[in-house]
Amino acid sequence: MSKLTIPLYHGTDRKVLAMSPEERTKAKKSAFVLINYYFNVFIQNGFEFKDYRITSKPEYDKHNQELREKLGIFERETWDAYTVACLLNKPDYQYESFYLTGDYDKACRYARRAAYFGEIGNVAYRLWHGATLLNYTSELNTIESDLQKLQSIWELPNKPVLIKFPDLEKNQLLDEKGVEVINNTLPDELLVKLSFRLKETPNDLSNYEVIELV
C-alpha cells in the first residue's frame, strides 16, 4: 500500500455533523429542489451561461444592469452560485462525494461555507438570497417546504470545524475527476494541495480528530 505522509482535512460545520444520515439526505434533496427552481427563475429572466461566464441576452441588457444594481455587494456570490448550478450535471461536480484536501486554508474555507449545509446548500442559499433581493417570489408554494427545511439549518449558529484524516492510503482516494490517486506520481507535498474524493464515505466520524475554527 502507498500511504500519504501528510494529513487530509474535511471542512464542515457542527450542525451538519449533528444531523442523522436521514436528515442529511432530506436536506440534500431540498437543496437540489431550490437550485433547480431558482436556476430556472434566472433563466426565465434572461440569463444564460456561455464559456464559464454569465452573459445576458441583448434584449435584456438594460434589465440585467438594473438587477446587478439591486444585488449590490451580493452580485458576485449570486453569479458564482448560478455558474455552479449550470455545471451540476457535469462529471466533475459530484456532490454525493466526501471531499478532502491537504490544503489547510482551503479546508477552512469549505468549513465556513458548510454553515449553509455544505457546498450544495451554499449554492442553494446564494441563489435564494439573490432571488430574494431581486423579488423573484412567484409560485413559492411549490418549494415552500424545501425552503423551510433549509432555512431551519441556515438559521442555526455557525460552528465551522475541520475533521482530520491522518495516514490515509492512496488507494482510498480519487481525484476531483474520479482518477485513482494511487496512479499519481506527484510527491506528497504537492499532491495534498489538491482536492480528493474518498471512495467510501465514512459512516462514523467520531474516531477522527475534530478541529474547532474561530
For the biggest β-sheet, the strand order reads 1-5-8
The structure class reads: alpha+beta
> Mean pLDDT, as a whole number?
80
What is the total tally of β strands? 8
Radius of gyration from the CA trace? 19 Å
Helix percent band: 40-55%
Please report the number of helical segments. 8
The low-confidence parts are: 49-53
Order of helices and strands: EHHEEHHEHHHEEHEE
What fraction strand?
15-25%
Shape: globular
How far apart are the termini? 36 Å
Main beta sheet, described? 3 strands, antiparallel
Question: Gist?
Answer:
The protein has helices at residues 14-17, 21-44, 61-71, 75-87, 104-113, 118-133, 144-154, 188-191; strands at residues 8-13, 47-50, 53-56, 98-101, 160-165, 173-175, 195-198, 209-212. With 214 residues, it is α+β, with helices and mostly antiparallel strands.
Furnish the topology, listing elements before pairings:
Layout: E1 8-13, H1 14-17, H2 21-44, E2 47-50, E3 53-56, H3 61-71, H4 75-87, E4 98-101, H5 104-113, H6 118-133, H7 144-154, E5 160-165, E6 173-175, H8 188-191, E7 195-198, E8 209-212
Antiparallel strand pairs: 1-5, 2-3, 4-7, 5-8, 6-7
Helix pairs in contact: 2-6, 2-7, 4-6
